[in-house]
Amino acid sequence: MNLTLKIWRQSDANDKGKMVDYKVTEISEHMSFLEMMDVLNEQLINKGEEPVAFDHDCREGICGMCSMFINGEAHGPDRGVTTCQLHMRMFNDGDTITIEPFRAKAFPVIKDLVVDRGAFDRIQHAGGYISVNTSGNTQDANATLISKHAADEAMDAATCIGCGACVASCKNASAMLFVGAKVSQYALLPQGQVEAVDRVKNMVAQMDLEGFGNCTNTGACEVECPKGISLENIARMNREFLSANVKG
Amino acid sequence: MSGFFKSSIGRKYAMALSAFFLMFFLLQHFAINILSVFSPDAFNEASHFMGTFWAVQYVLQPILIFGVIYHFVMGFILEARNRSARVKKYAKNNGAANSSWMSRNMIYSGLCILAFLVLHFIDFWFPEINTKYIQGDMSGLLGNGEGFRYYQELAHKFESPLRVGAYVIAFVFLSLHLMHGFSSAFQSAGASSMRKEKLQLFGKAYAIIIPLGFIFIALFHHFNHH
Lengths: 248, 226
Ligand code: HEM
Ligand code: SF4
Ligand code: FES
What we know:
Strand content of chain B: under 5%
Oligomer: heterodimer
Bound molecules: protoporphyrin IX containing FE, iron/sulfur cluster, FE2/S2 (inorganic) cluster
Number of helices of chain B: 8
Radius of gyration of chain B: 20 Å
Number of domains of chain B: 1
CATH class of the largest domain in chain A: Mainly Alpha
Radius of gyration of chain A: 20 Å
Distance between the termini of chain A: 60 Å
Order of helices and strands of chain A: EEHEEEEEHHHHHHH
Number of helices of chain A: 8
Shape of chain B: globular
CATH superfamily of the largest domain in chain A: Alpha-helical ferredoxin
Structural class of chain A: alpha+beta
Structural class of chain B: mainly alpha
């Protein structure tokens, strides 16, 4: 395949940045999107130009690093995949592909397609954990019984990889799907109950502080989420937040 | 609860609450208006009751006015915050791939409703307040004393094709607003998705039937008197 790429180039956080056109040739349809980007970067390096900076790590859909906004969608046109799992067969020979960084005030661009998602870490630090000393004190897994239903739903919520596609896709740059998943993962389990009130309050407060927008229930996040995190998690977070505030 | 209504989620609850109230009010408003199609007398009776009963006038009406103002002011505040959450826009954004037009344009459908409400107040509410509380005529009777004035006033308003046109357009936008808004309000209030499918269906039905009903009433009176 021969493609035209329109890529956001920005030399550092303070640079104004602009879209730049590139051509790549002989791209195999079996390549992943990131492999296609590697081909481009090799080309650029051979020409003595600055390669396009982009985040990636596992390249198998589990780390959540590969943030790219491709043809107007987070992680591109395919469903339930990250950019590293997106195959070039989703595109046609001769296509023009627009590639931008995830955009949100809370995700400032560091360079080219790389954004700082530290805001997610700070939200996690605000309460996305349980304070139990498990080293050397591991209990029998069956000591606390958990219903299959609750265990499944908690597991589903826990599959969130913190990629930020929800924020990138939301017209309001809202982080509620991410925070909803992180709150739900504990809210559904007995181990999460002890700190439930503080957890949801602190995580929501941190989310608001970071400058994310508000959820308007468009559902874009759920559609674009590579892990299929459900909107139900936002509704659950809302319930948790209300009851935490009523309890004081 | 002090910080609750300043938080993003607290505001969503408040938004949903005001929306529930408005949707309930709309239903009640429709129930009275539709009487005008079937029985001018029944419409007159109901209008007179609503227009003069103290609990409606001094309790429900102020709550309604507060609810409307709260809803659109909070709508503007949320919109402003949401816009500022993405300073640099995408060069290419395919919103249609993952969300409905209605859900992405609540502020525009809302602004159309607001423009309509201004017209509606000038048309019906200000004259009512003028007659009842400034001129002090609480009788609800026509100038010549022959029966109630409400039905005649209503029928008279819908003679103008311009006004009817404006009403029709406004209610199309109300329908679009509610098409997303109905189920959205439940989601904001934390309703579980187990009930979502039926809720969505019910919401779509409400969002189509009620505005369409208002349009029907306007058209009915327009063509009934020409
Ligand atoms: C007066 C003009 C109006 C404006 C400017 C307006 C604006 C808005 C906006 C911007 C939203 C989205 C807020 C958000 O979710 O972040 C919204 C939601 C909503 N509006 Fe309105 N609106 C107006 C009138 C109405 C009326 C008359 C009704 C019903 C009869 C209504 C029903 C709803 C519902 C049900 C929602 C969804 C609430 C939620 O998601 O929690 N609106 N409105
Ligand atoms: S909810 Fe989905 S889209 Fe959002 S951060 Fe988690 S995995 Fe990514
Ligand atoms: S590189 Fe790890 S999810 Fe894509």
